[in-house]
Amino acid sequence: MAADARAGESRLLTLPNLLSGLRLLGVPLFLWLVVVARQDGWAFALLMVSGLTDWLDGYLARVLDQRSRVGALLDPIADRLYILAVVIGLAWRDFIPWWVAVLLPLRDVLLWGLVPLLRTRGYTSLPVHFLGKAATFNLLYAFPLLLLGGGDSVFSTFANIFGWAFACWGIGLYWWAGVLYAWQVRTLLQQTPPLPRTREGGVRG
Question: Which chain regions cross the lipid bilayer (predicted)?
Answer without folding.
Answer: 12-35, 98-118, 130-149, 161-183
